[in-house]
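Translate structure to sequence.
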């Protein structure tokens, strides 16, 4: 079983930046996919970005290059660097561990974190 704990969510103004962290215990070692999803009030959960064991990354087209997913395996941590934040980015952000990297995020997600709130004000 993998436990995922997110942190780094905060309230920022438009144009601000945040870095989300996801501590994984244990961190997957092979044939894995790690991803960030988000869910805004009244909306479905959507994929934001994903990374697989080969370091291949995918992003939602709507992000327009503002977010970067990365991992530090020595620290067992997944990151999401978010720049030029917009009010539409307001959501609860979830870390996920799955099996297959897909167009946006991961498929066959086995584990979810509890989420961290990001609020962007105009």
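Result:
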């Amino acid at each position: 079983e993998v436990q995922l704990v997110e942190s780094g969510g905060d309230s920022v103004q438009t144009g601000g930046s945040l870095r989300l962290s996801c501590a994984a215990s244990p961190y997957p070692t092979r044939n894995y996919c790690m991803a960030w999803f988000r869910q805004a009030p009244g909306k479905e959960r959507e994929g934001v970005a994903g990374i697989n064991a080969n370091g291949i990354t995918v992003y939602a087209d709507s992000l327009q290059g503002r977010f970067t997913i990365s991992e530090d395996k020595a620290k067992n941590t997944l990151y999401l660097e978010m720049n030029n934040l917009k009010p539409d980015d307001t959501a609860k952000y979830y870390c996920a561990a799955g099996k297959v990297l897909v167009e946006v995020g991961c498929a066959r997600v086995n584990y979810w974190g509890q989420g961290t709130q990001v609020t962007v004000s105009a």
